[in-house]
Amino acid sequence: MQFLRSYWWLLALFIVMVVAAIIFIPGDFRKYDYPHAGNGFEWNAPDINRVPNTPAGDLIRYGNDIIANTAVYFGPKGKIAPISNGMNCQNCHLAAGTKPWGNNYSAVASTYPKFRARSGSIETIYKRINDCFERSLDGKSIDSNSHEMIAIAAYIKWLGANVPKNEKPYASGIIDLPFLNRAANPVKGKEIYAQNCQRCHAADGQGTWNADSTAYQYPPLWGNNSYNTGAGFFRVGRLAGYVKHNMPFDQDQKEDVRPLTDEESWDVAAYILSQPRPVKKFAQDWPDISAKPYDHPFGPYRDSFSESQHKYGPFEMIVAAKKRK
Question: Considering the entire predicted model, what is its pTM?
Fold first, then answer.
């Protein structure tokens, strides 16, 4: 009996030590600290190679190709129209919109049409696609009745065909990071960028072109060919969450590359957004200014916080003030 009591005591001590190790292990070694799957519909991207050889299947494949190689069709040397900056849709929507927490398209078909506070209106998938053309690709919208628009929409709808209506699958979109207790720091972010980002995006942030300069292998993060100030990634919270889960892009290929911590993700996002880029104002945005996100960097606001604080933080007090009202 004494032996059994000692055994159970040792087992209990071992369990406590394991739990403590999991809780207190340094953040740098905990690759991701995200909610467990099961908090929503679990989505797995369908296989593009299994799309049937039918006219409908051809349309889906064409849409996939436009998402992956947008610049071939609409970039500076685009064979349809030179109306965008040379970036591809999948530079922001990774793996052609199929990567978990990679800004994927899993929830688009199930949630659109829907009301969006940014426009103050009910938006269709076509409107949302053209928003990306005008903002993230810093270009012009395309005809909603064009073969290309119909193909893009067909591909996106195919990706989310099995998602129940009004359901937002687990790992859709971008992860929300916990707030810092300070403002995100561009000065700290510059050093993080040099260590982790410039090998792909270049020291000057201008990205890396492919061999024939028709599209970017790694997109520009600022400068004339990057997304403009109306894009969703011009919000530091959105960019930080995207960086945290997806960057450095080569972390799965190199043993010495570790994921960034939450703090590093906020700071490098602040550095990227402190750099010059195309300025494009959309006067119709946020008709109800009280609906602006905490990190929308342009006033006017319903609160007394500055544009600088809305851009870099700290954000806790902004969110708390909004809740009080």
Answer: 0.85
Q: How far is CA 211 from the centre of its chain?
A: 26
From the CB of residue 74, how many other CB atoms can be counted at a distance below 10 Å?
27
Q: Tens of pLDDT along 212-249?
A: 877 888 999 999 999 999 999 999 999 999 999 999 98
Residue 238 — left, alpha, or beta (φ > 0 → left; ψ -120 to 50 → alpha)? Answer: alpha
Q: What is the pLDDT of residue 78?
A: 94
In one-letter notation, the amino acid at residue 72 is V
Contact present, 309 and 296 (Cβ < 8 Å): no
**Across the strands, what pairs with 173?**
104
| CB neighbour burial string for 278-294, b if at least 16 within 10 angstroms, e if fewer | beeeeeeebeeeeebbb
Percent of the chain with pLDDT strictly greater than 90 = 79
Q: Could you give the domains of the chain?
A: 48-159 (1.10.760.10), 186-324 (1.10.760.10)
Q: What does residue 41 show for φ and ψ, rounded to 5 degrees?
A: -60, 125
Residue 83, Cβ neighbours under 10 Å: how many? Answer: 18
- E strands, the chain, are 114-116, 121-123, 208-209, 216-218
Say if residue 166's pLDDT is above 50: yes
Q: Is 322 exposed, middle or buried (0-12, 13-18, 19+ CB in 10 A)?
A: middle
* Mean pLDDT, the chain, integer: 88
Q: Cα–Cα–Cα angle for 53, 56, 60, nearest 5°?
A: 90
